[in-house]
Structures are given as structure tokens and as C-alpha cells.
Amino acid sequence: MPSTRLLGPNLTRRRVLRGLVGGGVGVAALGGLGAAQAYRFGVTRHTRPLPGLRRPLRVAFLTDLHFGLFIYHSSVRGWVDATNAERPDLIVLGGDQMDYRAEEAPTGLLDELRRLKAPLGVYGVWGNHDYGSFGKYYSPHYGPARADWSMRREALRVAYADAGVTILRNQGQAVRDDLYLAGVDDYWEGEVDLNAALTGAAHLLTLLISHNPDLLPDLPARMGLVLSGHTHGGQVRLPLIGAPIVPSKYGQRYAMGWVTGAHSTPGYVSRGLGMSGVPLRNLCEPEIAVFTLMPE
Q1: Per-residue pLDDT tens digits for 38-95
Q2: Which CATH class is domain 13-295?
Q3: Where would I find the Calcineurin-like phosphoesterase domain in this sequence (predicted)?
């Protein structure tokens, strides 16, 4: 589907090129094409009927912001402005909001996220890089693993709530008389409990948020719609070949776009907004996905 191209506020060119060199990317990337694509984003719009929905619903889906690794508050500001301009009923964050050293605080991120506006609220889930930012595991970027990582996770949940974002970790709630919104913990680093997330759904249409699309084959019953991120669409895609690397045990199956899970549940895997590993994208534009969901 065609997208509306927007040029978000970027890092400096010098900082981008320094990141490319440090990441070991080749001379071609240093030409600037991949870096330019990395900091342009689009709004993709999708219209889909959902059985059980009684009236239209407009949902904005932002995922994989990766704040702290090549992405700072200026980029998030552009994404927030574009999201608010779509006037969604509901805003959902799909995980990997954070990607910074565990001793730091995502103040700039939360300052921008608190500007998101939707009458039904703003919700999110955690992703594997969020767990790195909690300090659950060691990496050169995050620093040493921390014994208090679960306490940091709780402190950040509270900080998100103060910024107007409700994190759903194996939880859900009715956001309308015909819609139950559920969110599960991260598939790689958390503890997924679908039954807990779906408690209270009853007869309502369910919109499920799972950072990682690898959950799709394990759905216990048909959902209305599942939204995921994590893969970045491969982040670097090549002509004819597609994405050489997709962080999924199912390979290309859930790389990006519309997919199908267990019980014929429709799912959408967003290309996300930020980057992991290197500040580079190719043929894989960052996206804010906006869904106009209609009664069937």
C-alpha cells in the first residue's frame, strides 16, 4: 500500500556516519543512501473489516522505536506529531521502545510519548530490547546484567503510566463495549502468558499486541487481530532477494506486512521505526501503521 512520506527530525550527519563506521558497514553505506532511508518514515494506512466490531475503530501502531541507539527525542517528536495528525481512537506501542544503557533513564522518550493523544488511550508492551535496557542481560551496549532488573522494569512501568502509557504485560482490558485489548510479555526475554492476557475477554473482539510475531502459530483460539513488530522487516532488504536476516525462527514467514496465525487469525507485522545493530535501512522504510477497522 502506498505510504505518505515524512522526513522526521534526524541525528546529525556526522553522528550517523560515525555509527556506520563503528558498525562495520561497507563503503556503499557510507555514501549516505542507507542512512537517508533510515531516518525517513511513512504512514501506512490499512482498512480491514473485523467480525464482532460494532462501529469503526482507528488504531495507530508504533513499534521498535529503539530510543537511545541512533534514535533520540527529535526523531520521536516527529513520530508523535505524525501519529496525532492521524487522529486515532487508540494508540498502541509494540515493544522495543527503549534501547539504552541500563543505568540511564529514557527521559527524552517519555517527554515525547506523553504528547500522544487518543480518546481510548495509549497502551504498550515490552520487547526484548526493553529487557536489555532494564539490565536483565549483559551486552556491550547495555552494560553488565543487574540483579535489580525486575525492579527497574516495575519502575519504568510506573514511569510510562505517569506519561500516559499503560503497559500490558500478560494483561488486558476492555477499551470499548465491543473491543478487548490484550498485551503479552516479550517472547524472547519475558514470560508469555496468553491465558492471563485474555482473562476478561469473554465474547468481545480481541486485539492482541505481541512484540514478537513468533507467537502467531501458538494462539489458543481465533483473535480479531494481532499486531507485532520485532523484525524491522529485515531492516536491510536487497533487490530480488529480500531480507537476508529476519530475527524469527520462521524466517521470512513473518518478516513484515499482513500474515496469518493459528485459527486463521489475521496479523500485521510492522517494519517499525527505529534500528538495531547499525543506523541503516535499505528498501525497508520505517512506518507508523494506521488501521481503520470496520464492522463486517
Answers
A1: 888 999 999 999 999 999 999 999 999 999 989 989 999 999 999 999 999 999 999 9
A2: alpha beta
A3: 57-233
